[in-house]
Amino acid sequence: MKDIADRFKALAEPTRLKILRLLHKKELCVCEIAEILRMSQPRVSQHLKVLRLAGFIRERKVKLWSFYSLVSGAIDGLFASLQQVMQTPLEKIPGFSEEAARFEKLPDSEVVARCRKACRTDENN
Fold first, then answer.
1. Sheet containing 57-62: order of strands
2. Collapsing DSSP states into helix, strand and coil, what is residue 62?
3. Sorting pLDDT into bands at 50, 70 and 90, what band is 44?
4. Which of 6, 54, 109, 112 is the most buried (most CB within 10 A)?
5. How far apart are CA 59 and CA 103, in angstroms?
């Protein structure tokens, strides 16, 4: 689940979404992306690194130049992974067992009972 969250974090930056959209059109080198976005090459390189580590883009080196392209199916794969997590029983999601156990005990929770009582009181006012 952490892997999916990390990949969504990579998409949480608008500049990275712009880069992905550009790379969807065609392979570009860092200097081309920097020119299009009016950003410094080091700043663009940092965004590209995040996208590469998240598995969305690939790098191709030609002498001193780095060219980037979109990994085919990477975005679809992320959403497929998310859909799989959403369909997996809570107790079977890695790293989610404690939360799943508390979820099952929720109807018996005194804290939740007080909260619900307070909510109902607020709704009636």
1. 28-29, 65-70, 57-62
2. strand
3. very high
4. 54
5. 43
Residue-wise burial string across 91-104, b where 16 or more C-beta atoms lie within 10 A, e elsewhere:
eeeeebeeeeeeee
Encode pLDDT of 4-38 as tens digits: 888 889 999 999 999 999 999 999 999 999 999 99
Q: What is the pLDDT of residue 86?
A: 85
List for the chain the helix, strand, coil content (%; round to 5): 70, 10, 20
What distance in Å separates the CA atoms of residue 55 and residue 117, rounded to the nearest whole number? 47
Give me the residue label for tokens 């690939």: 58
Q: How many residues does the chain have?
A: 125
Do residues 17 and 58 both lie within one domain?
Answer: yes
Residues 66 and 104 grouped into a single domain: no
